[in-house]
Amino acid sequence: MDYTTLITSRYSVRSFRKTPIAPAHLALILRAGQIAPTAGNRQPQRILVVQQADTISRLAEATPYTFEAPCILAVCADLRKCWQRSADGFCSNLADTAIVTTHMMLQAWDIGVGSCWVCAFDPFMVREILNIPDHYQLDCLLAMGYPDPNAKPGPKHLDRKPLAETVFFETFPA
Ligand SMILES: Cc1cc2nc3c(=O)[nH]c(=O)nc-3n(C[C@H](O)[C@H](O)[C@H](O)COP(=O)(O)O)c2cc1C
Question: Does ligand 1 have an atom closer than 6 angstroms to the CB of 101?
Fold first, then answer.
């Protein structure tokens, strides 16, 4: 798939087959996260791969958005490892994990694995269920699996603002 086709055809998959992700596919997806750029190349991402059905069932108590996926990645950043800007304390954690997750999401789609980025969860519950260390920020869950044959894009998928509302040239309007 060429890049334009890849990003145009991808959509948030919310209905999955029960089939586990093939190890070779999972390896490619994790490799895509590994090679993503991060601030100062510090690679603060810490990714927990959750495939055990009982753990995923417990996660379903912390979010309605597990979609009974066969695999959920908990994408965290080790706050001790992130790059910080001295001028204002800006911390790269969310930018780093966002690009790592995007790399994985797009690689997944290229090999027929669907995914849905999930931030609507009870962070306290998820942290406890997954035993996430205090110095890790939990930035998102990525529910992944082979799309159910009936999977289709959600109603918001094609709803994009015109570029004129989001992109400006040379100066922002007053
Ligand atoms: C940061 C972020 C958080 C999201 N959280 C959720 C979520 O909690 N539950 C969900 O069903 N989808 C979630 N999504 C998916 C968006 O709803 C989806 O990307 C958007 O509606 C556009 O649809 P599309 O991905 O099919 O193009 C999230 C996406 C992003 C980037």
Answer: no
| CATH code matching the domain that covers 3-166, chosen among 3.30.1950.10, 3.40.50.10540, 3.40.109.10, 3.40.50.720 | 3.40.109.10
Q: String of b and e for 7-23 (b: at least 16 CB within 10 Å)?
A: eeebbbbbbbeeeebee
Ramachandran angles phi, psi of 130, nearest 5°: -95, 0
119 lines ligand 1 (CB under 6 A): yes
Q: How far is the CA of 117 from the centre of ligand 1 (A)?
A: 5
The pLDDT score that the predictor gives to residue 116 is: 98
- Extract the residue ranges of the chain whose pLDDT is less than 70: none
Instruction: Provide the β-strand partners of residue 108.
Output: none
| pLDDT value at residue 6 | 98
The pLDDT of residue 69: 98
Q: What's the pLDDT score for residue 26? A: 98
Establish whether residue 11 lines the binding site of ligand 1, counting it when its CB lies within 6 angstroms of any ligand atom: yes
- Global confidence as pTM: 0.97
Spacing, Cα 156 to ligand 1 middle (Å):
9
